[in-house]
């Protein structure tokens, strides 16, 4: 069990809407979703949650084992934030979609009932061409213009959103409550590697699709257990550039960033640039009274044995940042090198345990009643 100072523990007290202006966009959000939003805002002022993508689905050398994660094998606790993906909710057979939905439904409900948090990325297979979610020259179509209202694939896009809404309505715990999720569509949109990326769609079309997506899910399909996250990659240097494709305060709950490039990818570090970018969107979120999170980062294979404390922790503690969580990418089940969190025996394991034991970082075991008015460590 981690030791949290009495001073810090006192921060985890009841926070009601009266303590700050409630900035979540869905006024009809479920009670649990509203509480999660408020409590994440409170946590971000003095701590940060640790997250790992696909942590419960598979890990280094294993897959589909109940209640297992590589992070738990190292620390005794699952990550506080578990990443899943809606990538197989379209462009697949009906049978595969149903199988994926059932596996993820159990994942989300189990995480919720343990007291953890789910965040959802969406590697969205191009609905108007081959090529999957990546942009492939000569194959991929620039489809944001086609799926927006009035576009030739708009009705198909609505059907895909209905699949997502059906899933959102299905993640009911034993007590009948819906599991809240942080939904992060069209991530890394300032790069060109995805078909929704900046080189392949206009600012106006991107914003139109984002606004329709949120409104259709929330107002037409009745999804009220989503927190909506906006996360470019690291292709910005100031607030104006960060907000260039921002769809508006009424369509975003959380501001984020995906940044591997400044944190050691290909042996290159620019921690000052990474810190500056974190500060840019954290300050915007504070100004707008919204959540902020470091939505993706990591160092593949973690060759730097001190990466957790000397790179990640130092950077996220170097400024007055208010970040609800930091999430590292997945541990592939078959690749010997594609992993972003340690497993038993991995060279950064000792440093990760130091990262885990730091009072600033929060893992699932540290969370109590995150979905209620009162929560404690």
TrEMBL record:
Top-level class of the enzyme under EC nomenclature: hydrolase
EC number: 3.2.1.78
Domain GH26: from-to ranges: 31-365
PROSITE patterns attached to this UniProt entry: GH26
Superkingdom classification of source: Bacteria
Signal peptide feature range: 1-23
GO MF: hydrolase activity
Family statement drawn from the similarity comment of this UniProt entry: Belongs to the glycosyl hydrolase 26 family.
PANTHER family cross-referenced by the UniProt entry: GH26 DOMAIN-CONTAINING PROTEIN-RELATED, MANNAN ENDO-1,4-BETA-MANNOSIDASE E-RELATED
Protein name as it appears in the record: Mannan endo-1,4-beta-mannosidase
Species name: Flavobacterium procerum
Lineage, highest ranks first: Bacteria, Pseudomonadati, Bacteroidota, Flavobacteriia, Flavobacteriales
């Amino acid at each position: 069990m981690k030791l949290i100072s009495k001073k810090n523990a006192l921060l985890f007290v009841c926070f009601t809407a009266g303590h700050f202006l409630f900035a979540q966009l869905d006024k009809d959000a479920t009670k649990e979703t509203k509480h999660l939003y408020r409590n994440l805002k409170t946590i971000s002022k003095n701590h940060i949650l640790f997250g790992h993508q696909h942590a419960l689905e598979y890990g280094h050398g294993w897959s589909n084992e109940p209640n297992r994660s590589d992070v738990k094998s190292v620390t005794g606790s699952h990550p506080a934030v578990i990443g899943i993906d809606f990538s197989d909710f379209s462009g697949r057979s009906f049978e595969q979609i149903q199988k994926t939905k059932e596996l993820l439904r159990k994942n989300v409900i189990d995480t919720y009932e343990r007291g953890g948090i789910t965040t959802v990325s969406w590697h969205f297979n191009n609905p108007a061409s081959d090529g999957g979610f990546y942009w492939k020259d000569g194959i991929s179509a620039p489809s944001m213009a086609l799926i927006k209202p009035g576009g030739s694939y708009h009705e198909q896009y609505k059907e895909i959103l209905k699949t997502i809404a059906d899933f959102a309505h299905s993640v009911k715990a034993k007590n009948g409550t819906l599991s809240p999720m942080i939904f992060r569509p069209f991530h890394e949109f300032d790069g060109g590697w995805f078909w929704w990326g900046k080189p392949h769609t206009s600012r106006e079309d991107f914003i139109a699709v984002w606004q329709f997506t949120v409104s259709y899910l929330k107002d037409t399909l009745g999804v009220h257990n989503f927190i909506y996250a906006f996360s470019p990659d690291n292709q910005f240097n100031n607030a104006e550039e960060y907000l260039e494709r921002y769809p508006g305060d009424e369509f975003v709950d959380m501001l984020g960033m995906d940044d591997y490039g400044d944190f050691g990818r290909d042996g290159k570090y620019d921690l000052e640039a990474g810190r500056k970018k974190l500060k840019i969107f954290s300050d915007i979120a504070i100004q707008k009274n919204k959540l902020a999170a470091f939505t993706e980062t990591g160092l593949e294979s973690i060759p730097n044995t001190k990466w957790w404390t000397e790179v990640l922790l130092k950077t996220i503690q170097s400024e007055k940042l208010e970040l609800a969580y930091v999430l590292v990418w997945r541990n592939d089940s078959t690749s010997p090198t594609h992993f972003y969190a340690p497993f038993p025996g991995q060279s950064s394991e000792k440093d990760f345990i130091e990262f885990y034991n730091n009072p600033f970082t929060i893992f699932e075991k540290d969370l109590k009643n995150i979905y209620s008015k009162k929560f404690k460590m």
